[in-house]
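Quick one, C-alpha cells below:
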C-alpha cells in the first residue's frame, strides 16, 4: 500500500476550551449577537468577521480557546470531542 492510500494519523483532543451552545444568532443593524441556550448567560456580541468566517448556527457551539481565538463547532463534532469539566 502506498503512502497516498494509507490511513491518515489519528489525533485526540486535549485542549481546554470555553463553550456555549447556541440557541440563536441574530443581527440588529450592523451588530451581531449570539443567544446562548445555556441558562444564566446573556446574549453577547460577535464580530461580522466571526459571522463571515465561522457561519455559526443554532444548535452548534460558540467556542473560545485559551489564547482567545473564537470558533464555531457543530454540535455532533463538539459533543463527541469534549466533556464538560
Amino acid at each position: 500500500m502506498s503512502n497516498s492510500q494509507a490511513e491518515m494519523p489519528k489525533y485526540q483532543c486535549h485542549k481546554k476550551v470555553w463553550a456555549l451552545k447556541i440557541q440563536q444568532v441574530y443581527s440588529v443593524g450592523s451588530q451581531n449577537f449570539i443567544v446562548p441556550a445555556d441558562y444564566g448567560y446573556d446574549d453577547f456580541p460577535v464580530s461580522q468577521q466571526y459571522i463571515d468566517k465561522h457561519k455559526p448556527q443554532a444548535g452548534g457551539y460558540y467556542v473560545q480557546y485559551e489564547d482567545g481565538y473564537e470558533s464555531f463547532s457543530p454540535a455532533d463534532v463538539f459533543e463527541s470531542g469534549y466533556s464538560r469539566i
